[in-house]
Amino acid sequence: MNHDEMYDDEMENDIELLFPRDISDESAMVLCDFLAELLMMADSRYLCHLRRYREEHSPPFNDYYQYRLF
To answer: Which single residue of 10, 18, 31, 50 has CA 20 to 30 Å from 38?
Structure first.
């Protein structure tokens, strides 16, 4: 087993510990609602940071594609 396969196995175990399969429907709903709310709060809190990062790391815009009809 190579290093990547060991890492994949560890990740699989971590995910299983964090997100077990045998939870109730209600627990799954509560967890997903919480994670969605957490994501929205993080997006809101760091909106300026996210925009700045995307602008700095996005590929240059090509005017040719702006007007091309597909």
So the answer is: 10
Helix (H) or strand (E) holding 42: helix 25-45
Give residue-wise pLDDT tens across range 36-64.
Answer: 999 999 999 999 999 999 999 887 766 55
Question: Is residue 52 domain-resident?
Answer: yes
19 within domain boundaries: no
Are 43 and 50 in contact, with CB atoms under 8 Å apart?
Answer: yes
How far is 54 from 47, CA to CA, in rounded Å?
11
Which residue segment(s) compose the domain that 45 sits in?
24-57
